[in-house]
Amino acid sequence: MKKSFLIIAIAAAIFSGAILSCSQPVAETPEVNVPGSDSRRAVLEAMLAARLPDGGLRITSNNHLVWINPYFGNLAVHAMLAAMPEYPDLAPEIKDTAEKWLLWYADHQQQDGSICDFTGTMDSYESSGKYDSTDSYTATYLVIALKVARLNNGEIPDNVAAAVKKAYGCMNSTMQKDGLTWATPAYKAKYLMDAIEVNQGLTAAVELFGVLKEPKLQKDAKKRLAKNTVALNKFYLKDKPYLAWAITEGDTVHQGFEKLYPDLLANSFAAACIPGLNKRYWQKLSTKQAELVQAICPQFYIAALRFGDHAAAEAVREQGRRKLETTPDLRAIYLDQLYSLLIISLDDPNFWPEMAAPTASSPLIR
Fold first, then answer.
1. What whole-number distance in Å separates Cα of residue 139 and Cα of residue 147?
2. In the chain, which residues have pLDDT < 70?
3. N or C: where does the chain have the smaller number of CB atoms within 10 Å of the terminal CB?
4. What pLDDT, in 10s, does the model give residues 225-274?
5. In sequence order, what are the residues at sequence separation of 6 or more whose Cβ sits closer than 8 angstroms to the Cβ of residue 86?
6. How far apart (Å, rounded) are the C-alpha atoms in residues 155 and 172?
7. Beta bridge mates, 51
8. Cut 0.70: pTM above it
9. Across-strand partners of 175?
């Protein structure tokens, strides 16, 4: 839904009022500094410092506040798992973090498979009763559940398997006849970013339900994936070298190419994820390099790698280095920004999860 990649500072009001305890008191995590020799490792360690004893991942880790956003938690786990092969000494800790996060998510799902953000303090926190989306939160959970299942030779704990099925049902609960999902049952907007993430979630679900020996659900996932892949064409804008960022009721198309969010971020994500996307989209997107570099946008960075624009990629890398050099304690950087920095350091054009490729006849490809 409305996914900013530079989270606004947490307002004091978020944490005001009575908060019921749902976590154990924990000690403050140690300071994490930037070693000059391996900033990637420092970022990874700062992300690991965001762990709570119960498996939650909080957005900030240099203070006493707790804010858990399941969407950003899922993306952080995905990034940490991608970095794991390069750090054998940290691999057990990363794997344990991912497994406990899957369990935390399962334990905090609502009955309909959705999950809310959680806020409070290190002494106690509770559900905010709010979420940014039901489609993207659940789709990204399916992706990391598959990644962990692969690490464990297809073994999935029973409660995670149950959570996967609930997340799948929730993700599809707002899917319309065209294969696109509303962001939430109450917020009837089909976002380009969400559509891509749902495609990735459905791709993961096909394999997950094979692992879980659920042939009916696997068949359902394949059908939905095919429909969603075709529906991505609805974001195509005739005679414009960029994509619409949302479609609302009545097939009202929302487009623009000026605002960092949602215009440029949505198009950066499409360029970073959609296989075979026509190079005209990158040519247009690269005209906004200054804004996207300043924001240290990992989607733009991955898109630059995919389209072979090494100068643009290096510009993002340099901006990331400056961010690290001017931050004495990396725990002061929010989790969403930390995983952005980790993504950039990994230098992998295939960082984002697999999704289905549009057909050769798709206007996105032609």
1. 13
2. 1-37
3. C
4. 999 999 999 999 999 999 999 999 999 999 999 999 999 999 999 999 99
5. 40
6. 25
7. 57
8. yes
9. 181
